[in-house]
Amino acid sequence: MKIDKEYDVVVVGAGPAGSIAAKFAAEKGVSVLVLEKDREIGTPVRCGEAVSHEGIAEFIVPDEKFISSHIDKFTLISPDGTEVTIPLEQKGYMLNRQLFDKAVAEDAMHAGAKFITNAYVHGLLFNDSIVSGVKVKYFGEEYEIKSKVVIAADGVESRVGRWAGLSTFVDFREMEGAYQIVAANVSVPTDTLIFYFGENVAPEGYLWVFPKGEGKANIGIGVSGEIGKTKSAYKYLNEFIDRKYPEASMLSAVSGGVPCTPSLEKIFAPGIILVGDAARQVNPLSGGGIASGMIGGSIGGGVAGEAVIENRPDKLSEYQERWEKRLGKRHRIFDKVKNGVYNFSDEQFNALAKSFSKVPFEKRTLGNLFKKALINQPSLLIEAAKIFVMD
Amino acid sequence: MLLIKITPDKCDYCGTCVGVCPEDAIELTDSTIDIDEDLCTNCSKCVWVCPIDVLIFDKNKLKDKE
């Protein structure tokens, strides 16, 4: 497939953040090229695949073709096995990310963006220290492609931003090394997200069992670098599966990294912006990055398009301001709450689950749960309250 | 001397190690992984975050050195 020597905007990475950025840029009327290093958009799936309706509906019409199951509650399982089920105020979905990512990319294609797979970006072009394009290897051939704006959506690795001089590396204690399988032959309710907590199962985090319908589930765990010093995600997950689902078979198994940190201090530099996991736009409390990455991508893509149209390279700084307003501040609060919650001892989790299971089902909300969880940590309680009142 | 050992056969090329490397010493494509010996300081952060134990700190190499 032919690649031109110059585009207004070049996007590195065709995950949801990169594709939405491409779409929003293309809709401004500029030329957009998206370079994906993998052979196929949407694969491998390094993700728990759960999202809220609101999380995606802003960007794409929820379609049964990429939804594996509909979610309306979640169950927390404490170390002693106490189960608490909480109805979700916002309905959610388990996505089929292989098809979802393609659908988002196709929307961007319809908006005018061009996509190329098997295209590995390994360097940047500079013009007077301003980023002016990318070096890419595509089917063994080297290309230099010029651009007015590069959008780095290269995921957890986030090397493209580094090449532009931005500090993108994540403290190992805040990086979750994750391992997940899609298992068949597991009996789980199809409308419930299940979270396991506890020192032995998932220290300083959670292990997820998310339904994919027809006796299938996405089962995974993220383990911080601190915990990983002694035991990896792979070992934790295998022990859990062997104990809990000995009859399970594997449809797939992949590893991945989740940067559970507030977004970077600086997500733009002359000629370049960072979006999605590359900008560390993951919700640090939940580890979810689909919705927040698409929000980052949409703002970034729009600003990049405007900067080109108005011939105002300085406009890229507006991206950072708009991201801060929309989610950046919120994520910093989530990060504080995360540190309070995930340091709970097994006894604290058990006591919380027992006490919350006495709350009538219809009165169980995430807000109430955090209130109970943080009752002995008043300063964090105030932080948590901010999450549920601000928007 | 590079003391981090890679088992490429195990690697899933997920990039978690790249995200925590302070030296940008890890070169990763969708099917290859390599550590730049000149840049690597053996700090082992990549070893700790690797979800599936592809990277290990090779104590034997340290002994050989002594």
What does this molecule look like?
The complex is a heterodimer of chains A (391) and B (66). Chain A is of the alpha/beta class and 391 residues long. Chain A has 3 domains: 182 residues, FAD/NAD(P)-binding domain (3-Layer(bba) Sandwich); 123 residues, D-Amino Acid Oxidase, subunit A, domain 2 (D-Amino Acid Oxidase, Chain A, domain 2, 2-Layer Sandwich), CATH 3.30.9.10; 52 residues, no CATH class. Chain A is 32% helix and 32% strand. In chain A, strand 15 and strand 16 form a beta hairpin. In chain A, helix 1 packs parallel to helix 3, helix 1 runs parallel beside helix 7 and helix 8 packs across helix 11. In chain A, 53% of the residues are buried. Chain B has 66 residues and is α+β, with helices and mostly antiparallel strands. The longest helix of chain B has 7 residues. Chains A and B meet through strand 10, helix 5, helix 6 and strand 14 of A and helix 1 and helix 2 of B.
Write the layout of secondary structure elements.
The complex is a heterodimer of chains A (391) and B (66).
Chain A: E1 6-12, H1 16-26, E2 32-35, E3 50-52, H2 53-57, E4 67-77, E5 83-95, H3 97-110, E6 114-116, E7 119-127, E8 130-138, E9 141-152, H4 159-163, E10 175-184, E11 192-198, E12 202-213, E13 216-224, H5 225-228, H6 233-244, E14 249-259, E15 268-269, E16 272-274, H7 290-309, H8 317-341, H9 346-356, H10 366-373, H11 378-389
Chain B: E1 4-6, H1 16-20, E2 26-28, E3 33-35, H2 45-49, E4 55-57, H3 59-65
Antiparallel strand pairs in B: 1-4, 2-3
Give a short synopsis of this structure.
The complex is a heterodimer of chains A (391) and B (66). Chain A has 391 residues and is of the alpha/beta class. Chain A has helices at residues 16-26, 53-57, 97-110, 159-163, 225-228, 233-244, 290-309, 317-341, 346-356, 366-373, 378-389, and strands at residues 6-12, 32-35, 50-52, 67-77, 83-95, 114-116, 119-127, 130-138, 141-152, 175-184, 192-198, 202-213, 216-224, 249-259, 268-269, 272-274.
